[in-house]
Write a structure and sequence with these properties.
This protein is mainly beta and about 425 residues long. The chain has helices at about 60-65, 115-125, and strands at about 5-15, 15-25, 35, 40-45, 50-60, 65-75, 90-100, 125-130, 140-145, 155-165, 180-185, 200-205, 210-220, 220-225, 230-235, 245-255, 260-275, 285-290, 305-310, 335-345, 355-365, 410, 415-420. The strands form four sheets. A seven-stranded antiparallel β-sheet has the order 8-5-3-2-1-23-22. Strands 4, 6, 7, 9, 10, 11 and 19 form a seven-stranded mixed β-sheet that branches. It has a five-stranded mixed β-sheet with strand order 14-21-20-16-17, with no helix packed on it. Strand 20 (about 335-345) and strand 21 form a beta hairpin. It starts with a strand and ends in a 16-residue tail after the last strand.
Length: about 425
Amino acid sequence: MTDIQAASLEGSDDGQKKQGTRVFKKSSPNSKITVYLGKRDFIDYLSHIDPIDGVVLVDPEYLKERKVYAHVLAAFRYGREDLDVLGLTFRKDLYLATAQVWPPIEEQKKPLTRLQERLMKKLGPNAFPFFFELPSSSPASVTLQPAPGDTGKPCGVDYELKTYVADGPDDKPHKRNSIQLAIRKLTYAPEEPAPQPSAEAVKEFMMSSGNLRLEATLDKEKYYHGESITVNVLVDNNTSKTVKKVKISVRQYADICLFSTAQYKCVVAELESEEGFPILASQTGFCKVYTLTPLLNNNRDKRGLALDGKLKHEDTNLASSTILRDASQKENLGIVVQYKVKVRLILGFGSSDLSVELPFTLTHPKPAESPPPSRPTSALKGAVPLSGANAPIDTNLIQLETDANDSGGHRDEDFIFEDFARLRLKGHEGDDTEA
C-alpha cells in the first residue's frame, strides 16, 4: 500500500522563519494519480462545515479515454469486514457524493480555494481540483472501541475519500489506480451560555417521618476534553435513616440508530467517598464538592466505548456529545452520544438508594475565529491554532507536522515532504490496512 506523505507548502513572513501549510499526499499503487489534501479533520461549526477541497494530479497519457472520479462516503459499519459474505455487508451508507475530476465538467466548476490555487500552480497543468460540501445533516465520525485482539476496521461511523480511474462513476475501481484516504468530521459546540445543570430528588420512607433530600449541581454545562468536572452535592437528612457514603460517576450513553434504536451505557469516570459520612438521622446541611475527569486513558479496556473517529496509528479521545439539530434525523447519524453525571447516596441495609442525573456536553473548544470556507488560506492567519502548548489534554490532533529543518525530510522548492511511515507506531510497520 502506498504510504501517505505530509507535505508543507511554505509562506514567508517578512524574513522571519517560514511556517508551512501542511498538505497530505497519497499516490495510487501504479503512481498514475496522486491526491493532495490540506487536512484530514473537517470541522462542523454548526453555522458551516469545512469543505473537502483538494487536488488530483493525473497522467493524461495513461488515462486515455477514461475518467477520474472522487467520492466521499460516510458509512456506519456494525460488523467486521471478514464476516461479510455472499455480497451482504454489515454496513449502512449514511452519505455519498461523487464528482468527476477529469476531464473537468464546465457546469460543475467551483471557485478555487487558496490552497487549490497554490497547489495547481506548483503541480502544473495536469492538476485538477475537487470540492465537496457536506450537508448539515451528515453524521460525525465515531469509533466504537474494539476489544484487545480484534483486527480489521473497528465498528462505527467513518468517512472515506476515494479517488479512482474508471469509464463511469458506477464502475468498480481497480486497486492499482485508486486511492482511499480516511478522513473524519468533528463538531465544535457553539459558544452559547447555558444554565448550570442541577437536579434535586426527595425520598420518603415507610415507618419514618420526614424525608431525605439530595441536590447536585455542576459548575457549568459544557466541558472540553481533558477538563475536570466539578460536582457540588448537598444532603439534608430529616429521616431516621443513615446515609453511609456517596458514589459519583460520569456515564456515556450511545444510541445505536440502525433498524431500531439500542442504547449502551459505559462509566468513564467514577469515585466513591465516605469522607464526612455517615450522615446520621436528622442531620442537615451536608455540602461537599467532588471532582472527576473523564479520559480515554483510563478506559482503554472497555469494549464498545464510543470515541471520536480514529485515524490510522493516531490517538483520539472520548466521543464528543452529539448536537442534535433535528431529533427526527437521528437515524442518519448512526451513533448519538450523550453524557450524564450520576450522584447516588448509599443508605443502610434494607433501604433503597437515592440518586440524581445531570446531563452535560463534552466537546472540543471552538476556535476564536472560524472564517467561512470560501475565504483563502491567507485569511486564516488570525485563527487560534489547536496544536502546541495550548491544546487541551486528550485532544485528537494529527501529529504529522515537524520542523522544516528536520533532516528526515527533503526540500523541493516550496514543499517539504514527510514520509508518513516514519511516524508509524512500533510493531505496525507491516500493517497494510487503509490509511
